[in-house]
């Protein structure tokens, strides 16, 4: 299975390390065992390619203790499970990053994402490992975020030899076997392995650290930034129920004159009216609120709304952000006051003519109307800063265990705003 | 205007050898169009072909200008069907639901809904590929009329014959200019295929060589096997996971996409049978299954298919000497675990010995760390009067690896305690 080398790769040591890794991280065992080992003198340590082959330097295995090798196994397989090659390619395309220097930065950023929780707890820290701390960066972020925060320079000088292979940064190396080489995993097989690992973590969430649980939740979610979701929700809400541009038999078409005896519908246009209710209880930052409100205004203009058809109902605390913004965007302000969202709904629905869509920007800490309002509702939900749990997981205020906030009602379409998972 | 233009006729019309500028332009165009093709596997096109052959409505999601129309042209040629393209966004709803034509006595005779000419031609031909392009930029009323056409195959009073296949195309939500979005019941009736372009193919095609996909052919001899296989795959999954039978999409990111229901499982079953009969790869099947029931249930089904491919533990126990174990480590461990589980279920000396023989064989043909867990479990199944087989000596390598891992784990624990 492995070509005969001049100085043999110590397979027993390597596999003992893999066994230890699988025992320390049982939820990663499937992925660890799915890797195909290839002996290589071109890699400084160990490296993976995007086809799930693991290249190993015999000299590195010789002078590294088993417990450190085990950590490297987990590190390399983490690159593959977290799809760092695919994400690197996407980032490179989006931000126009080219050249080997940028790929080295991606490798370092990917290492930062992995390393803050991969070692310890049964796995030893290898030497010279890249950590967010050693670059002066905070822990717990994603590769895409780290990538914005450092440049190659004196601090990263010690990592210039770092090479985790194309599995970590998407750049094909000449010593790799490539897509047509032996023992590679096809795209479908790779997805299947990642899926099994994710299922295993979700099945027994107690065993895996938080970062892996988050990964398992999001591994097979398509990347969908909140702006697009909110836009789609508002567009679909405004284009239904007689608003927007649509055909109608209410009036004869101008084409009818040319086709006697045939009844043609005509294209009617009725721009949608959008009411934005803003409820902040202090936990939402001005920047978040501003960007969300600006987004709503932009979307309603894009679907044919006019400035005078978008109105904003601020509730107390937000007023100082909302007022200048609305002046800048030319949006008429309505009302104010009232911390209960139900009064906001009542006020919006009292307006004549009635809105076609109500958009609510809130952190969800509010009672909701008991009955469905007479128009479509889109809820933009700000995550609460002191509790990252999603709104439907039964999260509650730790200071007051009696208080359980209502989740947004099922008749509203809910978009979570500002979640950082957009980059995945 | 006397000014000179490159396409103007030259000054000497009497010259017999002169060629008009338009002819030269035509020559240049001919050279530009002179491209060759090369065979190249195309799993997107293969998936589309199978879904169309299975007579399921397909929805292609892709950015504009990505080659959806070119793919449809190739598909129509290979299935030998005339292609009718209808750009949905330039039509009115009545073009799909039928135009009300008022006759002499509407109260007596009713108002017939007259179909457009292309529909009449399609019905007259009896067969064809109808491509509904630009679904996403059409106004809602047009989309509503189109969905009736896709799902009920009716245009006005006209019923499309069974020989007509329908494919629709839409832009993804992020690039759609207005409010097209599938409601869950409608999304459930489509096979959703994401249409993307392959960078290499485009560059090579612009260089003069376009790919020519070899499309799947259904093998008449494999039909019974295909049906059996498809039924077994879907039924085994759904009897083990009843929750997967029907699950509405709960979160905003999954809206408008595929989700599991009895209807979409039936479509999946049909697609598995077609892919099996055509001998298609797992990649193609993966696109189809995930496009019909969604990513999660689709991946579970595919994982189930992978397990169905693994050798049966009972057959391995019957002939351990000639057993062929999978090359891939994770699959190999799954097989060995299965063998040990089979011995545990019905323990006797002969089966226990056979399992040891299998473990030795696994050790000889692959990496030793995979054997450790099954060997430990198998050893614990030993009963008092069973002698340890001689072959167990050869598992010493695995035991020493296990000890080595234990020692390393102990050192790591000490080091972790010391450093943090």
TrEMBL record, chain B:
Classification via Pfam families: AAA_5
Q: Which InterPro entries match?
A: AAA+_ATPase (IPR003593), ATPase_dyneun-rel_AAA (IPR011704), CbbQ/NirQ/NorQ/GpvN (IPR050764), P-loop_NTPase (IPR027417)
Give the highest taxon in the source lineage.
Bacteria
The record lists the lineage as:
Bacteria, Bacillati, Actinomycetota, Actinomycetes, Kitasatosporales
Which GO terms of the molecular function aspect are on file? Answer: ATP binding; ATP hydrolysis activity
Specify the species.
Answer: Streptomyces liliifuscus
Instruction: Tell me the protein's name.
Output: MoxR family ATPase
Q: AAA+ ATPase domain location, by residue? A: 54-200
């Amino acid at each position: 299975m492995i070509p005969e080398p001049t100085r043999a790769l110590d397979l027993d040591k390597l596999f003992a390390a893999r066994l230890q890794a699988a025992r320390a991280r049982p939820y990663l065992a499937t992925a660890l065992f799915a890797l195909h080992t290839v002996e290589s003198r071109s890699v400084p340590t160990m490296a993976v390619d995007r086809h799930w082959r693991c290249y190993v330097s015999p000299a590195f295995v010789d002078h590294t203790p088993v417990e450190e090798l085990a950590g490297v196994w987990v590190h390399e397989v983490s690159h593959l499970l977290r799809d760092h090659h695919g994400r690197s390619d996407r980032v490179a395309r989006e931000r126009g990053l080219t050249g080997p220097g940028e790929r080295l930065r991606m490798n370092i950023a990917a290492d930062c994402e992995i390393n803050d929780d991969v070692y310890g707890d049964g796995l030893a820290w290898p030497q010279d490992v890249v950590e967010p701390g050693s670059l002066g960066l905070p822990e717990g972020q994603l590769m895409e975020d780290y990538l914005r925060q450092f440049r190659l320079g004196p601090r990263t000088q010690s990592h210039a030899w770092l090479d985790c292979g194309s599995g970590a940064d998407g750049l094909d190396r000449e010593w790799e076997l490539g897509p047509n080489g032996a023992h590679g995993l096809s795209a479908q097989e790779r997805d299947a392995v990642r899926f099994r690992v994710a299922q295993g973590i979700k099945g027994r969430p107690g065993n895996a650290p938080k970062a892996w649980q988050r990964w398992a939740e999001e591994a097979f979610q398509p990347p969908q930034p909140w702006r697009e979701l909110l836009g789609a929700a508002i567009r679909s809400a405004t284009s239904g129920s007689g608003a927007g541009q649509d055909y109608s038999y209410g009036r004869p078409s101008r084409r009818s004159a040319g086709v006697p005896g045939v009844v043609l519908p005509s294209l009617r246009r009725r721009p949608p009216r959008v009411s934005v209710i803003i409820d902040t209880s202090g936990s939402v930052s001005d920047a978040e609120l501003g960007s969300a409100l600006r987004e709503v205004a932009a979307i309603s203009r894009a679907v044919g709304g006019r400035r005078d058809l978008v109105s904003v109902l601020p509730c107390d605390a937000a007023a100082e952000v909302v007022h200048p913004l609305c002046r800048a965007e030319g949006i008429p302000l309505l009302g104010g006051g009232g911390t209960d969202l139900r009064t906001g709904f009542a006020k919006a629905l009292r307006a004549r003519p009635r809105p076609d869509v109500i958009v609510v920007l809130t952190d969800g800490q509010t009672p909701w109307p008991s009955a469905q309002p007479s128009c479509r509702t889109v809820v933009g939900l700000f995550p609460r800063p002191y509790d990252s749990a999603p709104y439907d997981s039964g999260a509650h205020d730790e200071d007051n265990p009696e208080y359980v906030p209502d989740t947004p009602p099922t008749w509203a379409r809910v978009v979570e705003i500002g979640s950082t998972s957009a980059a995945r | 205007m006397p000014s000179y233009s490159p396409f103007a006729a030259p000054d000497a019309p009497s010259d017999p050898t002169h060629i008009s500028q338009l002819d030269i332009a035509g020559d240049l165009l001919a050279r530009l169009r002179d491209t060759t093709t090369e065979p190249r596997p195309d799993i997107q096109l293969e998936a589309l072909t199978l879904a169309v052959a299975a007579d399921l409505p397909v929805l292609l999601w892709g950015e504009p200008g990505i080659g959806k129309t070119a793919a449809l042209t190739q598909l129509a040629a290979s299935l030998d069907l005339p292609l009718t393209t209808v750009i949905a966004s330039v039509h009115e709803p009545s073009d799909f639901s039928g135009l009300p034509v008022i006759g002499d006595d509407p109260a007596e005779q009713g108002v017939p809904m007259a179909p457009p000419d292309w529909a009449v031609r399609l019905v007259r031909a009896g067969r064809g590929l109808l491509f509904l392009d630009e679904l996403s930029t059409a106004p809602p009323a047009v989309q509503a009329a189109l969905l009736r056409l896709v799902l009920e195959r009716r245009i006005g009073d006209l019923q499309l014959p069974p020989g007509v296949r329908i494919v629709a195309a839409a832009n993804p939500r992020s690039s759609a200019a207005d409010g097209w979005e599938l409601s869950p019941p409608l999304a459930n009736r489509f096979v959703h295929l994401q249409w993307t372009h392959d960078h290499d193919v485009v560059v090579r095609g612009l260089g003069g060589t376009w790919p020519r996909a070899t499309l799947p052919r259904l093998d008449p001899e494999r039909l019974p096997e295909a049906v059996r296989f498809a039924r077994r795959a879907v039924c085994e999954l759904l009897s083990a996971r009843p929750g997967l039978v029907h699950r509405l999409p709960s979160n905003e990111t999954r809206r408008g996409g595929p989700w599991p229901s009895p209807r979409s499982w039936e479509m999946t079953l049909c697609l598995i049978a077609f892919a099996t009969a055509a001998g298609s790869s797992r990649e193609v099947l993966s696109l189809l299954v995930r496009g019909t029931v969604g990513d999660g249930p689709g991946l579970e089904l595919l994982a189930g298919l992978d397990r169905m491919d693994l050798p049966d533990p009972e057959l391995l126990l019957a002939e351990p000497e000639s057993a062929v174990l999978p090359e891939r480590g994770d699959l190999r461990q799954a097989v060995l675990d299965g063998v040990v589980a089979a011995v545990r279920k019905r323990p006797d000396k002969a089966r226990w010995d056979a399992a040891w023989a299998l473990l030795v064989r696994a050790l000889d043909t692959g990496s030793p760390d995979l054997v450790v867990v099954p060997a430990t479990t198998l050893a614990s199944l030993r009963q008092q009067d069973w002698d340890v087989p001689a072959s167990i000596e050869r598992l010493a390598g695995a035991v020493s690896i296990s000890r080595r891992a234990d020692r390393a784990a102990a050192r790591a624990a000490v080091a972790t305690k010391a450093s943090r």
